[in-house]
Amino acid sequence: MPSALETPVPADAPADVTAVGDTTEATFADLDLPEPLLRAIARLGFTTPSAIQEQAIPALLAGRDITGVAQTGTGKTAAFGLPLLAAIDPAVRQVQAVVLTPTRELAMQVAEAIESFATELPGLGVLAVYGGSPFLPQQRALQRGAQVVVGTPGRVIDHLERHTLRLDDVRFLVLDEADEMLRMGFAEDVDKIFAAAPVERQVALFSATMPPAIRAVAANHLRSPVEIAVTRQSSTVTSVRQTYAVVPYRHKTGALARVLAVSDADAAIVFVRTRGAAEEVGSALVERGISAAYISGDVAQAEREKIVERLRSGALNVLVATDVAARGLDVDRIGLVVNFDVPTEPEGYVHRIGRTGRAGRTGEALTFVTPNEQGRLRSIERITRQKLQEVAIPSPAAVSEHRVLQLLGRVAQRTEAGRLDLYREAVAVFLAQNPGTDPIDLVAVIAALAVGDDGPVARPANDDLDDALSRARLSPEHDTRSGSQGARADRSPNRRPSTGTRYRLAVGHTHGAQAGAIVGALTNEGGLVGKDLGKIDIFPSFSLVEIPGGLTPDAFDRISRARVAGRPLRIRLDDGPPERGTHHAPARPSGPGTHRAGDRRPNDAHTGDRRPTTDRPARHHGNVR
Fold it and tell me: Among residues 136, 211, 301, 373, which one has the fewest Cβ atoms lying within 10 Å of its Cβ?
C-alpha cells in the first residue's frame, strides 16, 4: 500500500467540510487499513469505527491534511494514530512522525495507544518526551531509532536545540488539542517545530473548538485540509453508584487495600494512568495478600488474555490496568471500579466505570482524588450529569468488622458441613484448663485472630494513614486554592515568628516550583499545618524553607519522597547561606510565586518543562494565598 505522502494534493484544491452526524455501520476493514493494523485493533476489541475515525482515516490515508473539531472521548487518537502508522516505514530508524500534545499525561496516553496499535509492526518504536522526566533516557531512545515521537512542545524544542532530535525524515505531524496548546502559550513553539520539519509532510490538527487563532494555525501549516466536525454525546451512567474519596497520593495504596477489604463485589478493576503505576500498584496488592494482577502495554498479549480469563473464571479478584490495556474488556463479575488516578479526560471516566454495572446489574465506582485535583470532579459530573458522592476510606475497625461479619456469615454453612468434633474437643480442653474464660471472649479472640487483628500494638502505620486522610478532607467545600489546608490555617494573627531550622528542597523556579505547591507538599506529606512553617525562599534550582519546630525523622522521610512540579523534594538541612548575589523579594499579594508574565515559557501541565530565567529568589511566608 502506498504511503499517505505519495498522493500529492494540489495547492489550490478546495477545502472539504464534512459534518459528521449519524454514520453507516462501517467496519475497520472497510477503511483500507493495512492488514497488520487491522489485526492489532481486532485484538484490542475494536469492532466499528467511531464517527471521527470513519471520516478521518480515509482522508488521511489518501494523503490529505485534515482539521478535526473533536473533543476527547470521540476516538481521535485512533483517527490519526492508525493512518500515521500506515505512513511509516519501520525499516527506517529515523523519526518519521511527531504528535504534539499540551500535557505530559496526554503525551503518555497517546504514546501508549499508538504502541498498542503497532503491535503487529515489528521494529517500530514509539517514544513519549515531556518535561519533568530525565532527559538522557529520552535521548538514548532517540539514538536507538524511535520512529514516532509523542511529546509536549517544550521538551520537543529542548531536543531540537540540543540536536538530539532531527525532523528531516518526518512525514506526519499531528497537533492534538490545539486549542488547549495555544491557550497554554505554545503557539511560538508549535511554529518552530513545524519550521524544523520538511515542507512535504502531512498534517492532522484536532481541536475541541475552532476559534480564529486555530484557523490561523491551520492556514499557516496545513494544505487545503479536509474539515471534519463531530459532536460529543453527553453520557449518563445510571446503573453505577459513583463516589469519590480525598486521598493524598502517597497513601493511595493503603486506602485501596482497605476499600478492597470491605467490598462485597465479586471482582474489581483498578485503573491507573501509566504502565509503571500498574506494575507498582498490582505488586503492592499482591504483597498485601490480595488476589490481584496487572495488565498494561508492557504485558504481552498472550499473558493479558490469560489474566483476563482468570478474572472471568473467579481465580483472580482484582485487576490493575491502564486505559489502553483494558480496552475491549468485558467481565460480568466486576462489581467495583476504582479510579486510582483521576482520568485525564471526563470521557475516559465514563469508559472506565462502564466496566461495571453490566448485564442488568448494579455496580460501584470510586475515584481517588488528591487534595489539589478536586476541580476535575466538576468536569466529570458535567459529562455524566450526576453528582459524585463523597465517601470516607474505611477505618481499620471497619475493615476488621467487615471481615468478622463475613466469617460469621459462614457459620451455618460450616456447621452443616460437619466434622467439628476435633475443634469441639480442643475448645472443651481449653475451657477446662482456663475455667475463668468467658466463652464469648474466647469466640471474640478467635474471630480477631482469624481476621488478622493482633491488637492495637500491631497497627502503628494506620494512625499515619488516618491522620493524612483527615487532613486531606479540608472543608465541606474542599477548598483547593494554593497552599491548601496548611496555608489557610496559617492566616492567623498568632502565627509563629519565621525563625528556626532551615531546610533545602531540590526544586526551584527552573523546575516550575511555586510556593503554594511547596506548602501543600509539606502540610500533606509532613503532617504539618501552616503555623509550623516560616519563610519560603524559591531560587532557580532549589528552595529554602524555615520550620521553627523542626521535623521528626518520619516526617523528614515522607517529605523527601514527596514531589513538586514532577520532582522529588529530597529535603535536607541547609548547610549554608543563600547563593551570593541573590536578593529577597517579598511575596506579592496576588498569589504565591507570581512573576513577570514573560519570565517563563508555559509549563507542560506542571511537569517542570521550563527554562531558567532569573537568579533572584522570591520569598514567601506561610500565609500564602
Answer: 136
